[in-house]
Amino acid sequence: MVQENEEVHVLMVTLAAQGNINPMIMLAKVLLSKGIHVTLATTEASRKRLLNSSASSITNTSTNSKFYWEFYSDGLSDDFDRVNNIEVGVKSIFTYSPPSVSNIIKKLGDVRKFSYVIYNPFVPWAFDVAVEHNIPCAMLWIQPCALYAMYYHFYNDLSPFPTMENPNIPIELPGLPVLCMDDMPSFIHPSTPFPLCKTLLTSMIKNLDKVKWVLGNSLYDLEKNVIDAIDQLHPITPVGPLVPPIILGKEESVKGNADMWNVDDSCLEWLDKKSNMSVIYISFGSLSVLSAEQMENIALGLKKTNRPFLWVVKPPENPTADGKGELPEGFIFFAKSKRGV
């Protein structure tokens, strides 16, 4: 229990993936604006990239609360290829990261006594660390509440789902329209190439009954039916949308971002010249690396649309001989000459 007038410090724990960090940073800004101190912990391997990024600084002008970075070990060297060895990386995180985060809590105990821990679904072991230190814990669900409900029913065997043997089983979940196999997220799709996601999400679901709060990156009016339905099983409290206030037409009292790569906004002037809803936008996040064939197919599809497009492609950190993750030869010239980006 936090005493009156006592400083409140919150520890947030996330993986070093841009799509994981962004909603955590947005929630951190909300907490900072309320006078709460926030420490965001992510993997040591991202330290240099985050601290060197010109945009990775958080400053608060509305209160005296402060933001801190901390970095925990995943047990792997800085030059280890985590993208192409995801299974090894996840297993190492489960082994080495819990004691590393525990050591952070011990190390900072005298200067930042944490009142709460907030973690996202992809670091479920953070719950056990919070329990070890007797700290109340919340999970921030960073995807739509509809997916929270789907995963909850799937991993608790509460509803039938399609399989490769029976692909036509309808997915009937309270608060959602009837879905089919092609509507399933890749993490639980029968043909999923991510078997370790089952380990992550099973661990997350197992801990839910012991988590004090589940927070959702959504808003009630957007997902009313599914939020009301899942409330009967395991409630989720929407605290979103966790997006930059400027998108909502609001002023931002807590400035800064946490970008793992320097932001290139050179496309904005080009976009401003295009009519509304005329540009095709494609991005697969900071972790996905597509095969050369997939890159070729996307490029071919974009050419055939005869529409302006913005395709965000992060150059592979460890190039391969088969051209994995690389744009097809000549495509940049085509994009610049035909589309402007």
Q: Any key phrases for this structure?
A:
Rossmann fold, two-stranded antiparallel sheet, 11 strands
Q: How would you describe what is shown here?
A:
The chain is built from 10 helices and 11 strands. It folds into 2 domains: 9-255, Rossmann fold, CATH 3.40.50.2000; 268-338, Glycogen Phosphorylase B (Rossmann fold, 3-Layer(aba) Sandwich), CATH 3.40.50.2000. By secondary structure, it is an alpha/beta fold. A 7-stranded parallel β-sheet has the order 4-2-1-5-6-7-8, sandwiched between helices. Strands 3-9 form a two-stranded antiparallel ribbon. Helix 3 (86-107) runs parallel beside helix 4 (125-132). The chain is 32% helix and 13% strand.
Give the topology.
Blueprint: E1 9-13, H1 18-33, E2 37-43, H2 47-52, E3 59-60, E4 67-72, H3 86-107, E5 114-119, H4 125-132, E6 137-141, H5 145-155, H6 195-207, E7 213-216, H7 224-230, E8 237-238, E9 254-255, H8 268-272, E10 280-282, H9 292-305, E11 309-311, H10 331-338
Parallel strand pairs: 1-2, 1-5, 2-4, 5-6, 6-7, 7-8, 10-11
Antiparallel strand pairs: 3-9
Helix pairs in contact: 3-4
